[in-house]
Design brief:
With 400 residues, this protein is mainly beta. It is 6% helix and 65% strand. It has one domain (3-399): Porin (Beta Barrel), CATH 2.40.160. The longest helix is centred in the N-terminal third of the chain and has 12 residues, at 3-14.
Length: 400
C-alpha cells in the first residue's frame, strides 16, 4: 500500500465518527427515509463547471485518461410530508453534463438522474409497512460503487437502483418481527461492459427482535440472496445469511445498528462460508451538524469477470456542517477492499479510496454558491485497472 493510499486512510479514520436516526435495522442497501422534519415542495435550478482529470497507470483501448473541462446544468425537486400515520417523501435530481474535450470511447455529453421515494404506513400501533426506493442513472461510479453496486472504473452511462419493502409487527411490547424483500440491479449502456456486469438481485429477509430496554433491541435474522447475471448466467450465485445483531439509541440524536454472522456463498464455480458483518451509525451533533457512517463485509457481485468470487469491505462516512446560517461545509470519505479468487485459487487484491469536500454560501435567501473537490484512487494487482482522479467544481443553485 503506497503513501497516497495511506494518506487517504489516515484522513478517513481521523474524520469525526459519531452519529442519528432511530430507524432500527439499517441494512447497508436500505437507504431508509428520515422523517424527522417536514420539507415543503422545493424546486431548484443548478449550474456548475469544473475540471475532471482521471489518469490510468497503464493506458489501453478499454481504459483511457480523461482530461477535460466540463459544464453541467440541472433541475431538482424535493418534498417531505410529516403525517403521523403515513409520512412520505420524494426527491428528483436531473442534469446534463458536457465534457469540452470529450471522454475517450464514450463521447462528450452525458445525462444524470437520481430519484427517491419513501413512505411508511402504520395500520396500528403494532403493524407497520415501509418502502424505500432509490434509483440513479449517470456516469459517476461513486453513486453505486460504495454500496457494491457498480464498477470502480469510469465505464460510461449506467443505471443502478433498488426497492426495499418490509412489514413489521409487534407481537408484544418487547417482541417484534420484520419481513422484507429487496430487489436491486445494475445495467450498463456500453455493450462491452454490460456483457459481464448487468445483473439483478432478490433479497428475502426475516428478522426477530427483542427489546431489552427503551434504547436497545437484540436481533436474530435470516436472509436469502439470489443474484442473476443477464448475459453471463455462469456467474449466477446465491447467498444465505445467519446473523445476530443489536440496535441501540444512545440518545434522540445518536443511534446505530450492527449485524454479524456467516454468509454461505454458492455458485457453479465455488461454495464457501465466510464472516459477514454490517453496521451503521447516525449522529446529529446539533442542529448544525450531521454525521453518518456505514460499513459492510461480505461477498460482492461487481466485476467478477473470470473470478470465482469477490469478497471484501466497503465503508464510508459523510458529514454536513452549517458553520453559520449562510455558510455550510460537507466532507466525505470511502474505502473499499476486495479480494478476487480465480479458478486456480490465486487471489487478486484491490484497494479503492475516495475523499471529497465542499463549501456552500447562501448569497441570498434562495440563491447558493458552492465549490467542491474530490480525489479518488484505485490500486490493484492488475495494473491496467489502477488510476488517480481529481475533480474540482464551482457552481450555483437557485431554489423556489
Amino acid at each position: 500500500m503506497n503513501t497516497k493510499l495511506l494518506l487517504l486512510l489516515t484522513i478517513l479514520v481521523s474524520l469525526p465518527v459519531g452519529f442519528v436516526n432511530g430507524q432500527g435495522l439499517v441494512a447497508i442497501q436500505n437507504y431508509s427515509a428520515d422523517f424527522r422534519s417536514e420539507q415543503p415542495l422545493t424546486f431548484s435550478l443548478m449550474s456548475q463547471g469544473g475540471y475532471d482529470f482521471l489518469s490510468y497507470r497503464v493506458n489501453s483501448p478499454l481504459v483511457e485518461d480523461i482530461e477535460s473541462w466540463y459544464m453541467q446544468g440541472g433541475f431538482s425537486a424535493a418534498y417531505t410530508k410529516m403525517d403521523r400515520t403515513t409520512p412520505w417523501s420524494f426527491s428528483l435530481d436531473t442534469s446534463v453534463i458536457n465534457y469540452i474535450d470529450g471522454v475517450p470511447r464514450f463521447g462528450d455529453t452525458f445525462y444524470n438522474a437520481r430519484a427517491t421515494f419513501n413512505f411508511e404506513h402504520a395500520f396500528s400501533e403494532r403493524f407497520k409497512v415501509t418502502n424505500n426506493f432509490f434509483a440513479t442513472y449517470g456516469v459517476d461510479p461513486s453513486n453505486g460503487f460504495g454500496f457494491g453496486g457498480s464498477t470502480a472504473l469510469w465505464n460510461g452511462q449506467y443505471f443502478y437502483g433498488y426497492n426495499n419493502f418490509n412489514v413489521s409487527y409487534a407481537w408484544s411490547p418487547r417482541f417484534s418481527t420484520t419481513t422484507s424483500y429487496t430487489i436491486d440491479g445494475v445495467g450498463y449502456q456500453d455493450e462491452l461492459i454490460a456483457e459481464p456486469e448487468d445483473r439483478y438481485t432478490h433479497l428475502f429477509a426475516q428478522q426477530f427482535a427483542y427489546r431489552i430496554s427503551k434504547q436497545t433491541s437484540i436481533t436474530a435474522e435470516y436472509r436469502y440472496r439470489m443474484t442473476v447475471f443477464d448475459k453471463s448466467p455462469s456467474k449466477n450465485f446465491n447467498s444465505q445469511f445467519a446473523l445476530v445483531g443489536v440496535d441501540h439509541a444512545w440518545s434522540e440524536r445518536m443511534s446505530g445498528s450492527a449485524r454479524v454472522g456467516a454468509e454461505f456463498y454458492d455458485s457453479d464455480r465455488v461454495s464457501t462460508v465466510a464472516p459477514y458483518a454490517e453496521g451503521a451509525l447516525d449522529y446529529a451533533v446539533d442542529r448544525q451538524t450531521m454525521v453518518r457512517w456505514f460499513a459492510a463485509l461480505g461477498f460482492n457481485g461487481a466485476e467478477l469477470a473470470a473470478f470465482n468470487s469477490r469478497y471484501g469491505l466497503n465503508t464510508g462516512v459523510q458529514m454536513n456542517h452549517n458553520i453559520t446560517q449562510r455558510f455550510s461545509t460537507n466532507m466525505g470519505a470511502s474505502y473499499s477492499y476486495s479480494t478476487f479468487e480465480d479458478a486456480t485459487g490465486t487471489d487478486s487484491v484491490e484497494h479503492a479510496a475516495a475523499i471529497s469536500a465542499g463549501i456552500g454560501y447562501q448569497l441570498f435567501e434562495n440563491f447558493n454558491v458552492n465549490a467542491g473537490y474530490s480525489y479518488s484512487l484505485l490500486q490493484a494487482t492488475d495494473a491496467l485497472r489502477e488510476f488517480d482522479r481529481h475533480r474540482v467544481s464551482l457552481g450555483a443553485t437557485a431554489s423556489f
